[in-house]
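User: Please predict structures.

Assistant: First:
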Amino acid sequence: FETPFFKGRMVMRIKDAIGAPRTPYFNGKRRLFSIQIEGRFKQRLRTDRVLFGSSFKHKISMPRGASIAMSILKSIDSALQEDLFAEKNPWIMSPLICAVERLQVRKPDPNDTENDGLGPWRYGGDRSIEEDSSLVLSEEKKAKMGDKKMSFGARRKYFGDVKKREATYWEPDLVYTFDFLSARMDFNTYKVKMAKFIEFGTTKLMNNQPFRLEARVMDENDNSKKIGAMWAFEFCHNKVSPFPAGLQIVDHSNDM
């Protein structure tokens, strides 16, 4: 796929989705979905300008305890922003560099001229994306860490500092591999599990609109103004927003 800001490829997996090919990716894992994206930025962007999360066209009906759930999420991700109670265009977003659960950054394959230096797809079957964000870290931070790699939690905490995000860029001359995954949201049932005793369904909350995940790019001088999207996709459910007529499922099980 290609947008004005990014060019790459994507594999999406939803555990136990009806009609979807079986994949060993979920074996031994609690996660309920995975969206893997690999590619290159088409322009240099400050990391504080690129956000990832959910957005909606219409008001959503927030359930009881929503404020508690938001407090839990914000205690985990200090950079999280939201306006879920808005009458129009509610949203919840975090900087992409803090939000993505697995991030791997590498140099392009100089021998690959067909895939823009991405090389062959390396994450089929049960092969997972391993965290390696060293190429986005400052030289000072890399010197302090030595050979140790930064974990997702440490990366989220490190880039929770807005000054560090403002000093860091998504670079066009590198290849980025993302894995967005979660054990909280089940897209088969549209149920969210926030903690051991906090679980709720969302089918009645969505007001007949799909669940949308989006990476948006904000204006360089006004970080509240969206100028476009790097990518966006919507999850349909027959109880919320039925699938488009004529939708076909293509078996890519060998690549999953």
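Second:
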Amino acid sequence: MIPFLAPYGGLFVPVVTDVTQAMSQALIAPDDVNIHLATCLPLAAFLLVTRYAVQLIAQTIGGLTGRIGSKDLKKFGESTWKFVYYTTGFLMCLYIVQENDYWPKSANCWRDVETRSLNLQGYYIWELSFYVSSLFAHVLFEVERKDYWPMFFHHIVTILLIGFSYLYGYHGIGMLVLMCHDASDVFLEGAKLFRYTQFELASTITFAMLIVSWVWYRLYLFPVFVIPSVVYESEVVLGYQITFYHFFVSWLMILQVLHVYWFVLILKVAQRSLFEGGIEDVREEDAAKVKTK
């Protein structure tokens, strides 16, 4: 078997048979779970309102510049919010990862699973709230694109991973998962912003950085180091198989499939840019074609 595919060999076997027993192994008491949910849900509502306000402000400013077409104003607002969030989130994530020495020593993710720094707790609740708000925004007012359903399932899986990894103390590996995602999202939204504002050279350079970061973080580090850490290092360090092991690995595998799916779309954009000039989001064009049929 190919070495980096070995972790997935025993994936499709019966999953947890006693959910009640598994839930009893959570490291957070039920009362604390209620407190965290009481924090998360209002914060998600706050982020949803903030997101909407930022998008409206960005659309207004973008319209005043005269550089953005009317059909791109809403998308410019969305990308402005996402760029600001992912940039600050990625920098905070890197700080916490380095503070706790989770990378490159990924085995450290499984040590001291019962302790969390205040920085990590705050960041985790913030990220969970962000993805809950993103799910609602995706359904309610985001521009519809070809990958509507893949993105919908991505939000669902991400919420499950963040929530359950925090519940069971697997926050260390969770930080690496978030690190692998936020980095490329910064370049993705940056490239869009430059395109909407017609700075083509900056858009092309940022798009090239997106491809490099996507390959490095999502197609290399994530499947070769992060997922195997869940499969192998967790049991070596902890001395037992983690709770909901097959669920966690399955969710991570779903994310990896989505990474490959989106990378194919990214390559289509790159191909069109090379032969036709200009960077256009093929997801938006395909979605428009579907609506006109």
